[in-house]
Amino acid sequence: MKGKNRKQNLSDAREVDGSYDQLTDSTEDDFELSTVCYRPEGLDKLQEQTKFTKKELQVLYRGFKNECPSGVVNEETFKLIYSQFFPQGDSSTYAHFLFEAFDTDKNGSISFEDFVMGLSIILRGTINDRLNWAFNLYDLNKDGCITKEEMMAIMKSIYDMMGKCTSPCMQDDTHREHVESFFQKMDRNSDGVVTIEEFIESCQKDENIMRSMQLFDNVI
Amino acid sequence: MAAGVAAWLPFARAAAIGWMPVASAPMPLAPREKRRTQDGFIIINVSGTKFQTWRSTLERYPDTLLGSTEKDFFFNEEINEYFFDRDPDIFRHILNFYRTGKLHYPRHECISAYDEELSFFGIIPEIIGDCCYEEYKDRRRENAERIQDDADDENNKEGVMPDMTLRQSMWRAFENPHTSTLALVFYYVTGFFIAVSVIANVVETVPCRASPGMIKDLPCGERYALAFFCLDTACVMIFTVEYLLRLIAAPSRYRFVRSVMSIIDVVAIMPYYIGLVMTDNEDVSGAFVTLRVFRVFRIFKFSRHSQGLRILGYTLKSCASELGFLLFSLTMAIIIFATVMFYAEKGSTASKFTSIPAAFWYTIVTMTTLGYGDMVPKTIVGKIVGSVCSLSGVLVIALPVPVIVSNFSRIYHQNQRADKRRAQKKARLARIRVAKSGSANAYMQSKHNGLLTDSPEQASKEAGQAFLSKTNLSFEKEHHHLLHCLEKTTNHEFVDEETYEKNCMEVSSVNPPGSRCSSISSQHGLTSTCCSRRNKKTFRLPNSNMSGSHAGSLQELSTIQIRERPLISNSRSSLNAKMEDTVQRNSEHPYVTSAIISIRTPPVTSREGNNTSDSPDYSQRNIVKVSAL
Predict the structure, then answer these.
(1) Lowest CB count within 10 Å: A106, B300, B348, B619, which one?
(2) What is the CA angle B581-B584-B588, rounded to 5?
């Protein structure tokens, strides 16, 4: 990604401000990470790469920077932010999967470019792009097919977000049944895994899914 | 919800795409996007200092002045700004609260000025961030105490209020002797008699000149027995009368009897009465003599007269653990050295160290550097041990004592602060819980109201405008839409704790038709496709803990409307607050209506308040209004 050159901008506070103290060496180390600052590429470049307008990018960046002043989101912050929206349940597992899906260069943190690229696909991409993205989300080990175990994990994480107090009461194998029905619908050749072609084909046949994929177009 | 997180809501909603292929039910429609272009600047002029911010920043907290329409009252058309005639320095912190989600308390500001600004702008102080919360609470408490002290002084200066009963005025006279001259006289008289009694006890034991005809000196007590007895009687009578008067005047007699001062009073006068009872019994006269020792407790009655004595007693009590530790370490050292000393001196002849307990006395005297010299070691080993003992005694005693003395104030204040922090932590966790449940409850509340916005316009007209216009904030709507999608994906619904527990109990006792019918929140109302079986679902609108909603009105009319085909009268799915009774009602009167007034009180009371204030006008249409608590 083009952003790799920019990463040289990291400023190491210890050398710069000379507050390196022999006696309190250990405490200075603790502050090292938090002063790292990462700046994204220019607005024009991002506009070329994504399908957002300038104004939308500005709004997105303002919100992003507000919550993550250092310019990158690490997984902990990500989970924390996501958990604010689901007060009743435990959203950490799903947030972890989301984090994996957004962190395309697998460096353990989501920069603004990753963030905006992901959002561009979800919100401004074609239906196929979106389905591809969703498939990528479900395919935990990124091997091109979704196994039952992977789907179980995803389903459990979604059900975890509901929390305990639901109606009807949540049973232990609720999500298992859901996975079974999912596989029945998606797995055409019944080989126990869902490939990308099967996935896209089955989704295109289902009206509800097609309609709901466009539900969030106006979010930004 | 933190303000900054509001900016991430679009992301959270976009990420919901991950649920779509998995969901088996159709998703609810997204809330109408009114405008995104209105996100412009807003200029706030506070006494000449101009602040600028985005409109959406202020809208994060809709229940404050700046976030609601209340600020329109301050809009000045001439300058096209919002003008507030308040303190700009404090306003800076208030505006920062909107920006960062954390409210800070500036230490140099006066606490009451700050409080006034907070209440003007409609911000509750409980959301002050943890960094500043303790300081804020401390200052507030100090201020409150100061005001209270001033008020007390005022109270004390004025005369007896005419509407106090005799009992209350007596109690007041006892507690604050400066209130009236009679109280003052009483105060001094009792003080005088306490002093007399104590001096008499002391002088009793001094040997007087022997009366003529006696050989040895007698103690004065025995020589002038009658005089001392009369004096004692007089003092005890005064003390008894005082105690009885206090007992009568006390507002809470039980608490008074258990208090320390009253116990001291009782102990001071009991020996006399016991002595009266068993004067001539020789066997118990020994015990009687011991009892007289307790007369010395009269001196503690002075603590009512001396503020300093009370403070000393209180500080000793609060530093008891430190003193206890000192005692414990000393005891350990004493035992160690006494044991060593005993075995060291065991060999020598005519040793005074006959046993380890006997050696205790030596150790204590040596460690406290008293050195009476009544017991001395004779062997060399014993002398070595003795010297080590005295050296370590200096260390063991001399070191902790100043530390303990300085610990008095430090630990005392620290303890208070630790307790405060623990109490605040509980309060803080409660606040967080309330905020969390507030947002969860807000969702469930508007889940039911959400039906109103999609159902025809007559709904709003009937339900009353005031209620609908409250939760029109787009952020809330979007967040609730997100939660709604999650419900649809998993085919389960959010309920609050009570309903959940009730459901669990019912599940275990009754076998409900466990259909995955999501008809309740369906937009189109009940159609036969959604639910053909009778579904019993219990709902409860949580009407307590609504911290997110307006602090204003306590009563809201909330009705839920379900448009229904008149044919299906049997297979109707009923939203019932109680499973039992309303089902019957609905089957008899297909068009019965009942409006619920949901009050901000625990559900128990609101159930009574709901009782069918039926409005017969509504019954004409094919709309069944079912009420949910």
Answers:
(1) A106
(2) 145
| pLDDT at position B575 | 38
CB contacts, 8 Å: B487 with chain A: 162
CA dist B264 to B201, B277, B315, B535, Å? 17, 21, 19, 71
Tell me which residues of chain B have a pLDDT lower than 50: 1, 451-472, 511-629
| pLDDT per residue as tens digits for the range A43-88 | 888 888 888 888 888 888 877 887 777 888 888 888 888 888 888 8
Q: Which of A103, A167, A170, A177 would you mutate first to test chain B, the one with the most B CBs within 10 A? A: A167
User: In angstroms, how far is the first alpha carbon of chain B from the final one?
Assistant: 26
Tokens of B352: 């005074």
Question: At how many degrees (to 10) do helices B400-454 and B130-157 cross?
Answer: 110
Phi, psi dihedral angles at A96 (to 5 degrees): -65, -45
For A125, the 3-state DSSP assignment is coil
pLDDT for the residue B284: 63
Q: How far apart are CA A69 and CA B163, in angstroms?
A: 64
Give the number of other Cβ atoms within 10 Å of residue B3's Cβ: 19
Pairing of β B596-599 and β B555-558: antiparallel
Phi, psi of B553 (to 5 degrees): -70, 145
Q: Are B592 and B616 in contact (CB under 8 A)?
A: no
Report the alpha-carbon distance of residue A38 to residue A46 in Å, rounded.
15
To 5 degrees, how large is the angle CA A86–CA A90–CA A96? 100
Residues in B touching A67 (Cβ below 8 Å) = 4-5, 7-8
Per the DSSP assignment, residues forming a β-bridge with B207 are: B219
Q: Looking at chain B, which residue has its C-alpha nearest residue A63?
A: B7
Q: What is the pLDDT of residue A178?
A: 85
| pLDDT (tens digit per residue) in B203-216 | 888 887 766 666 67
Contact B560, B451 (CB under 8 A): yes
CB B132, CB B109: distance < 8 Å: no
Please state, in angstroms and rounded to a whole number, the distance separating the CA atoms of residues A203 and A195. Answer: 12
Instruction: Tell me what pLDDT residue B241 has.
Output: 93
Q: How close, in Å, is residue B478 to chain A by CA atoms?
A: 9
Can you give the pLDDT at residue B336? 94
Helix or strand run (H / E) with residue B447: helix B400-454
Whole-angstrom Cα Rg for chain A = 21
Report how far residue B497's alpha carbon sits from residue A58's, in angstroms, rounded to the nearest whole number.
Answer: 41
Please state the rounded mean pLDDT for residues A193-200: 87
Point out the residue among B14, B507, B538 whose CB comes nearest to the CB of A119.
B14
- Rounded CA-CA distance B215/B413 in Å is 61
- Residue B512 DSSP one-character state: -
Prediction pTM value: 0.47
Beta bridge partners, B626, equal B560
User: Which residue in B has a C-alpha nearest to residue A177's C-alpha?
Assistant: B490
Q: How many residues in total does chain A contain?
A: 220
As a whole-number percent, the residues of chain A with pLDDT over 90 amount to 3
The residue type found at B500 is Y
List the 19-78 stretch of B: residues with Cβ below 8 A of A.
19-27, 29-30, 33, 39
Residue A217 pLDDT:
79
- Fill in the amino acid letter for A177: E
Q: Are B21 and A97 within 8 A, CB to CB?
A: no
Q: Which of A35-44, A207-216, B543-552 has the highest mean pLDDT?
A: A207-216
Read out DSSP for B491-510?
T-EE--HHHHHHHHHHHHHS
Please spell the DSSP secondary structure of B98-117, one letter per residue: HHHS-B---TTS-HHHHHHH
pLDDT (0 to 100) of residue B33: 61
Q: What is the pLDDT of residues B506-521, one digit of tens each?
A: 766 654 444 443 333 3
